[in-house]
Amino acid sequence: MKYAEHFEEQFGSKLLAQFLLKRPMAKEIGDDGTFTKDACDDVDKAFLMAAEKGIKGFYMPAEIGHGTNPDNKWRTISSLQKAIRFGLVEDAQFAVSAAYDMDKAHTLRRLGVIAVEDCLMGNPLMVGIVLAAMGNAHWRKSLDERRFMIWVARELAAGVKDRTAVNLLVTAELEQMVPKKEWAKATDGQLIATAMNEDFTFPQRMCAAWLLAGTRRYAGNTFPDTNNRKPTGLFRMMVEIGCPRLLLYFAAKTASRLSEAMFAAMPLVHEMLRAAPVVDHSHQAIYPEKVGKLLGAAYDQYVREGKVAIKKFFRESKELEPYVKAMPAGAQDRLQFGGVFHAEGGCLGKRVTYGPDCQALIALVGGPSRFADLGDLAPTYLEAIREEIGFLNQCRSKVLWATLHSK
Questions:
Q1: How far lies 1's CA from each of 99, 132, 357, in Å?
Q2: pLDDT of residue 66
Q3: In this structure, are 87 and 132 located in the same domain?
Q4: Domain boundary residue among 158, 179, 206?
Q5: Same domain, 37 and 109
């Protein structure tokens, strides 16, 4: 299936798909060469109308999650993201409802981040709906905000996933051939020329696009925080290369409503989609085991108990002992936390891929080359971790029990 057909299927409306997949008209482009706020407002309205149609007839689950202890917020949000990645509808509904009780504003923002980060071009309709809803509080309340968020989590979990924007950013972070501090001093015109130059690799072009966004506000670990430029040049470039309304809107609202750097990847996402002969679906194994009421995978490096449990796991697993011994000094955290993410938490139950560049990107981000420090053991590392997921969850359970009973 070609990507335009994939989008029509996702939108459920040929008219809406055609509107969003076309380039904007001249009146939708401002004096600065970017997609205007009024044009974004029109797309907002289109997505909100689609949401009203989609949510009609949706009833709340018989039992919904509730949570009042703020100490549970981060692990609950983490479980929500893993449930959406894995395609576990009931777990996603439970987690988003419980998180709503703890911090509804943060939960809505996290739904937006998860949508762009994990679902992007796999489920563009729901990505657009979340971004539109974030700017319309009165509209959300008219639908019952909890009901709306549960519906969104349900649809994101049930839909197809896509992490291309995040993968592009990861490759830019890992890119060592680009002198990022020097490139940050380049003019917008020079960075635009580099980002559009197909003689450079995708990671190198992504570096230019990210710098063009301004890496002081839209920061990266390996990018200079002194680069305070505004992203106007990036938005103008997107118009010039023919990005459709859909991606122009995604970029604008990811920047303004989420304040996330993923919008800088949209020009390269557009290029991949345009070049892709077909859109393919693939499946990954998922890990739905629970630790308490939440998914075990929720206890990752970004959750305090998860970080402790992962370190315990690698200390105590006999099967992983050869890998631990092979880890160079100073690389243990990167290899251990990254290994668990790629083996378990980052798996997508159903993913869309578009063209060889997208597929090569996936291999570059999560393939054996990421674990080259392990030498000959690198190709078997992720599978070795997967074989030990049961033991990892035992470690998580013990750490969580100790945490809860030490208070």
A1: 37, 28, 17
A2: 86
A3: yes
A4: 158
A5: yes
In a domain, 371, yes or no: yes
The domain boundary residue, chosen from 275, 301, 322: 275
Per-state percent for the chain, helix, strand, coil, to nearest 5: 70, 5, 30
Q: How far is CA 19 from CA 4, 34, 266, in A?
A: 12, 18, 18
Element (H, E) at 282: strand 279-283
Could you tell me if 231 and 339 lie in one domain? no
Residue 208 lies inside a defined structural domain of this protein: yes
- Count of all residues that appear for the chain in the document: 407
β 294-295/290-291 pair status: antiparallel
Q: Which residues pair with 354 in a beta bridge?
A: 279
pLDDT for res 112 = 98
Q: Which domain holds residue 257?
A: 164-275
Check whether residue 263 and residue 189 sit in a common domain. Answer: yes
If one counts every other C-beta atom within 10 angstroms of the C-beta of residue 357, the result is 15
Overall average pLDDT of the 243-256 stretch: 98
Asked if residue 281 belongs to a domain, the reply is no
Predicted confidence at residue 190, as pLDDT, reads 97
Backbone region of residue 57 per phi and psi (left: phi > 0; alpha: psi in -120 to 50; beta: other values):
left
Q: What is the pLDDT of residues 132-184, one digit of tens each?
A: 999 999 999 999 999 999 999 999 999 999 999 999 999 999 999 999 999 99
Confidence (pLDDT) at 407: 55
Q: Is the pTM of this model over 0.90?
A: yes
354 touches 273 (CB < 8 A): yes
Q: For residue 284, is it within any domain?
A: no
Question: Which tens digit of pLDDT belongs to each residue from 171-213?
Answer: 999 999 999 999 999 999 999 999 999 999 999 999 999 999 9
Q: How many domains does the chain have?
A: 3
* CA gap 373, 375 in Å, rounded: 5
